[in-house]
Specification:
The structure is a single chain. The longest helix is centred in the C-terminal third of the chain and has 46 residues, at about 110-155. Strand 3 (about 50-55), helix 3 (about 60-70) and strand 4 (about 75-85) form a beta-alpha-beta unit. Helix 2 packs parallel to helix 3 and helix 6 (about 160-170) packs across helix 7 (about 175-185). It contains seven helices and five strands; from the N terminus they run E-H-E-H-E-H-E-H-E-H-H-H. About 25% of the residues are buried. Helix content is about 55%, strand content about 15%. By secondary structure, it is α/β, with parallel strands linked by helices.
């Protein structure tokens, strides 16, 4: 496992135990940055597999910046924080932080923490994709139904005939039936 890892250190001091533990766990630290703005540039430049944010305490403003910066390059984010409360943890989760560890942690735990974060991220990403596909399927069904109704009304077709007519039009144009249905509804078919 030589995954590219981006480390954002927002602590006043820099503890080398964390980078050493990350390297020993098999992660390749692509970059260590000490400023949130540099973090955004590094995400764009390096396209990391995972980011670790090492901070004494994290603010909602910093969490919001993390959310904006990681939208174009979605990947797991682990926040290692000395202080936090339920509200901050909830806010971190809402902006896409995969794992939020409060209080102390052992450098030995780092590998398992990152693996949990990656699994959580993959599961959430798969659920998001599944939800998007389900919404698209539902929307296509709705559009197809409306197009069938329009064809039934305008051309006096039965429901089966309207569906077959839509299918034929889609095949002729090498389109998906949902796209053809949208054209029918838009008056362009």
């Amino acid at each position: 496992m030589t995954e590219r890892l981006l480390l954002l250190n927002l602590r006043g001091d820099f503890d080398v135990k964390l980078p050493v533990a990350l390297c020993q766990a098999g992660y390749r630290i692509s970059s260590v940055v000490f400023d949130i703005e540099d973090f955004g540039l590094s995400i764009y430049r390096l396209v990391p597999d995972i980011s670790v944010v090492y901070v004494d305490t994290i603010s909602r403003a910093t969490l919001s910046k993390l959310a904006i910066m990681t939208q174009s390059c979605r990947h797991p984010i682990v926040v290692l924080c000395d202080q936090g409360d339920v509200g901050l943890i909830r806010a971190a989760s809402e902006v896409g932080v995969s794992l939020f560890v409060v209080d102390s942690f052992s450098p030995v735990q780092v590998q398992s923490l990152i693996e949990v974060a990656q699994l959580h991220f993959r599961d959430q990403d798969a659920l998001q994709k599944e939800l998007s596909e389900a919404r698209e399927t539902l929307e296509n069904s709705r559009v197809i139904h409306l197009a069938k109704c329009r064809l039934m009304e305008n051309q006096g077709l039965s429901e089966d005939d309207a569906y077959h007519h839509l299918r034929r039009m889609a095949m002729t144009k090498s389109q998906r039936i949902g796209d053809t249905a949208r054209l029918v509804l838009g008056g362009k078919a």
